[in-house]
Task: structure prediction
Amino acid sequence: MTNFEYRNPTKILFGKGQIASIAKEIAPGTKVMVTYGGGSIKSNGVYEQTMAALSGCTVVEFGGIEPNPEYETLMKAVRLGRAEKVELLLAVGGGSVLDGTKFIAAAIPFEGEEWDIVRKGAPLERSMPIGSILTLPATGSESNAFAVISRRETSEKLAFASDHSYPQFAVLDPETTFSLPPRQVANGVVDAFVHTMEQYMTFPAKAELNDRFAEGILQTLLEVGPRTLANPEEYDARATFVWSATLALNGLIGCGVPQDWATHMIGHELTALYGIDHARTLAAVAPHLWRVCQEGKAAKLLQYAERVWGIKDGSAAERMEAGIRKTEEFFEAMGLPTKLSKYENVQAGTAQEVAARLEGRGFKKLGERGEVTPALVEQILARSLAA
Result:
């Protein structure tokens, strides 16, 4: 295990009825910008609960943040926030709303070209304070420092991170997720699963506790993912799913261990090019990346196959392939294809285009060892594009 520093300043308010608790987290009279997406919060009771909790505050609303939040949309919110002199931002929604709100909060006080926050990783001296009410578990953005922003005019989907971007508090009420469409639930389960794998499927680092944490999250998602799809209002299953998605990317399981994230980098390019749901790009890339990078990941692939799937028989190669195949079957059972060839709009030459786009951004050595070159990206995607 390598040296690390760990701090997570986000206060978690978990459970039924916790939206009301934000009244204790925000000083009366605070000018709050409430951000949200397409407006579903106004039909499932979340909006009413939020406004009731903010009754002592001045509220400015900004809706319409898209899945894969768009820079052009977010800049409208930035201008509104500056004009209204808002003091705190409250994101009410899923990961896209949270990510977009993190950008808005960073950009309002930023001096310079706001896109530099994302494109150039411009350092942030400060950010507006953020709170969050989670309605779609998946990204872990409710208690981490990361955000991913898209820009349509340049076909870019890029990430930024700052310690200033941690939400001050996050409400995780499983009941707010009961009305989610099955597609979004399935996407969230797979997103959390791959987040965990990006921090686990690397090489042994003598970090036994972290391995067990990660394996516990994976096994839990395998159990509650299908249950929460089949029974959307089973509170205990949904609660466990919500908490698993948060723990998958709040920094804890990544302490002191190597991390990969090549699947995410490739997936972001596919979303930027074709608009494929983020989690679905992960499902179509990750298994093929593990196969192409099998030699360097062999020890963890074998450990994963045995501990998570109970696979103990056969040669090393057979056990590794069986573990990957079991994962593919799980993704597909959740409704997510594991082949890009299943998407009719994906064009010939995609493997080469994605590799070139990554290389053009300077991402020539991805993965935990920096071994995922543009040539390997092409190999990975070629496997996914095969019929």
